[in-house]
Design a protein that fits this description.
Elements: H1 20-30, H2 38-57, H3 62-71, E1 80-81, E2 88-89, H4 91-103, E3 110-111, H5 119-132, H6 137-158, H7 161-164, H8 169-186, H9 190-201, H10 215-235, H11 251-255, H12 262-265, E4 277-278, H13 289-302, E5 309-316, H14 318-324, H15 332-335, H16 339-349, H17 359-362, H18 365-371, E6 374-378, E7 387-393, E8 398-403, H19 416-444, H20 453-459
Parallel strand pairs: 5-6
Antiparallel strand pairs: 1-2, 3-4, 5-7, 7-8
Helix pairs in contact: 1-9, 2-4, 2-6, 2-19, 3-4, 4-5, 4-10, 5-6, 5-8, 5-10, 5-20, 6-8, 8-9, 8-10, 9-10, 13-16, 16-18
């Protein structure tokens, strides 16, 4: 019996799975910008603004410089910009480098339901393409929203099993988002889009083992490059399996023990995953944010100084210690995955921006001394965006605070003003006041641009 395309099967056995890849391709080809609700368009602009700020702000990070130097001898013609820098390179390498840059601070957006960082793979691919093949701001925004939706839907279908076994889900699903978004801008037909998604399926990248190293940021960069490659090949008729996602030996069955295809095909065009996107106020792993939020609040409410503190006790969601249980981080990147370091800098500095995750800060004796007083205990009942903090002081007082929803979560989202302040902090050192203001305005005005690639050229330095 043919599958009912209106009612996709949930948790289907591999040999009876619905035509997930084709249904997704059909939706992408038919999707129209005019059908997007105003709130979805606005969230797309917020996502782009946050992504661009992160990419420009981290342009001088060592990981970005190394990647540029390593790839330069093998790069093609200067077709696209390296954001926040003067260099230009070919489209494929620009997608890679800008994807690395956008994620290396670990300050980019997060789809909390799956912990995917959606914008990096998608925006890095399509902005590089937009400098080579001009597209309007409206088409660019539409492609960004579609790409985010695709990667998050696929992530929903396999989370948490896929993530828990060790895949870095941003890289493994981001390639689908990039392929879908680039395919939309290239005007692929249904068959070509099926091939693009199949080519994406055969290129998963990203192991959680790499967290705390430069290679974590390589994952969204490579996903952007791979997704872009997939769409370009498909455009020329390069074939793939037509069930790259759902076949018995396809992506979903190979990379996860759990599959819910309804999450991919259900409510296409109605349910928009970008509305579940969130933006980080702190430059570290998202699961640490509740602890930072609680420590900052206690510090500010009680005027705490590190010398007054005897111990700090955290009760956290299980994923916190699984992802960020590094007790003795050695580098700034390592510190982004240490709930102990993050609690310490939150109490000392009252913030957890990029300066709090420098190599020097991680090795600061005052930070180490307080870090050693922090303990974290798993509470299985604790929600992912919640924490309980208890700070014991030398005078015998014990200060308690429970955070039910961390700032930056979907329940306590960053406002447009918050995002503008974050963007300005990141971009100002690169572009100065006038350049930063112009770039900020361009992000909000994206839909009015005849050539979206102009924003990439504005974002170049020098």
């Amino acid at each position: 019996m043919a599958p009912d395309h209106g009612q996709p099967t949930e948790l289907s056995p591999p040999d009876l799975a619905p035509q997930v890849t084709r249904l997704l391709a059909r939706h992408l080809v038919a999707a129209e910008f005019e059908s997007l609700p105003a709130n979805v368009r606005h969230e797309g602009l917020r996502t782009f603004l946050n992504w661009l700020g992160c990419a420009v702000g981290s342009a001088r990070h060592e990981a970005v410089s190394i990647a540029i130097d390593a790839m330069a001898p093998f790069s093609g013609p200067a077709q696209a910009s390296i954001l926040g820098r003067s260099e230009r390179t070919d489209v494929l390498h620009a997608a890679l480098i800008n994807g690395i840059s956008s994620h290396v601070f670990d300050f980019d957006d997060t789809h909390l339901k799956t912990v995917i960082h959606p914008a990096g793979p998608v925006a890095s691919a399509i902005l590089a393409l937009a400098e080579y093949k001009p597209v309007s701001g409206r088409d660019f925004l539409h492609a960004l929203i579609l790409g985010v939706d695709v990667e998050c839907r696929i992530g929903n279908a396999v989370y948490p099993d896929h993530y828990h076994v060790g895949w870095h889900i941003t890289g493994t699903t981001g390639v689908f988002g990039a392929a879908a978004a680039v395919g939309k801008l290239l005007g692929l037909d249904e068959q070509q889009m099926v091939w693009a998604l199949g080519l994406a399926a055969t290129q998963p990248v990203g192991l959680r083992e790499m967290f705390g190293t430069m290679t974590k940021s390589f994952h969204p960069g490579r996903a952007a490059q791979n997704g872009l490659t997939a769409a370009l090949l498909a455009q020329r008729g390069y074939t793939s399996s037509e069930q790259g996602i759902e076949a018995k030996r396809g992506w979903a069955n190979v990379t996860s023990t759990h599959r819910n295809y309804e999450e991919i095909t259900g409510g296409l065009g109605v349910r928009n995953e970008i509305l579940l996107n969130s933006y980080k106020p702190f430059a570290c792993g998202i699961v640490i944010h509740p602890a930072i939020d609680g420590c900052v609040q206690l510090r500010n409410q009680h005027g705490l100084a590190a010398a007054d503190i005897v111990k700090v006790e955290l009760k956290v969601h299980p994923l916190v210690l699984e992802l960020t249980g590094k007790k003795t981080p050695k580098t700034g990147l390592d510190g982004k995955f240490s709930v102990y370091h993050s609690a310490a800098v939150a109490l000392i500095d009252g913030r957890a921006g990029e300066p709090q995750y420098s190599d020097e800060k991680v090795r600061d004796p005052a930070v180490i001394a307080l870090r050693d007083k922090v303990t974290a205990e798993i509470d299985p009942a604790m929600p992912p965006d919640a924490v309980s903090v208890a700070v014991t002081l030398k005078d015998g007082r014990v200060l308690h605070l429970r955070v039910d929803h961390a700032i930056g979560s979907v329940d306590r989202p960053m406002t447009d003003g918050d995002l503008e302040a974050k963007f300005t902090d990141l971009v100002l050192p690169v572009h100065g006041e006038a350049g930063t203001a112009a770039l900020l305005k361009a992000c909000w005005d994206l839909q009015t641009f005849a050539d979206a690639g102009e924003i990439a050229r504005m974002a170049r330095a020098g």
